[in-house]
Amino acid sequence: MRISIDVNMEYQLNGDEMVLLAIEAARLDDQTIIEAALEIENATLHRIAGEGMVGQRVWAFVKSERLKLRYSAVVDIMRAAVTLENLAATPLHALPSEVLTYVRPSRFCQSDLFTEFTAQQFGHLEGGAKIAAIQNWVASEFAYVSGSSNAGTTAIDTFFVRAGVCRDFAHVVCSLARAANIPARYTSVYGADVNPADFHAVAQVWLEGAWHLVDATGMCNATELVVIATGRDAGDVAFMESAQGAQPISQRIEVSQG
Q1: Class of domain 2-78+239-257
Q2: Per-residue pLDDT for 16 more than 80?
Q3: In whole angstroms, how far apart are CA 10 and each of 52, 59, 65, 87, 240?
């Protein structure tokens, strides 16, 4: 499947500033960048590897008080559809060291607080069947409500409120999976069916030696998502970080198929 991406952003900065961006599609075995361009006015760019060596992040030294950028890309996705229920979990002692970290709690995914609930709710299931049940439970129990959370909202906050946005859904899925000793990481993506159009977030779980995308919002299938970056939670993969703060002026994200 071919996905076209067009991102236009303008932010007010507090003078000359270094801004860290995570908006470019990652080069992966199951997605190929056909063409891509990142243009930032009055800025010097420096790229570094992303978390877990997935994709790249961009340091932009902006020599003005306005960040004006456009990112465009065409990406071919070759990711095969997978039935989660057919996949087995990997025993903890057999996990690669770089994967083991995604079983542990993190700032926004307090998986240690969900151990008892996960055992009671999903303890009769194993591996991918457990993940599928978690995905379905979150999709049915939580309402997608724009503005219902903020940058400080954690998985436990969302669990009690039973509402959130894609960021919050992903945090809860990651927390419940980790509570069941299945590695899970937070993943920022582009999706053509995201409504309202914006940067999107899903979970990735480690089953049978590979990462698999899980979107509990129900907006997108794994075969239609363009991966940008991954991390323990949203704190690792914010689309923009600014030490002095930045105020949005305009932001438009357009993602389409074909």
Answers
A1: mainly beta
A2: no
A3: 29, 16, 10, 43, 12
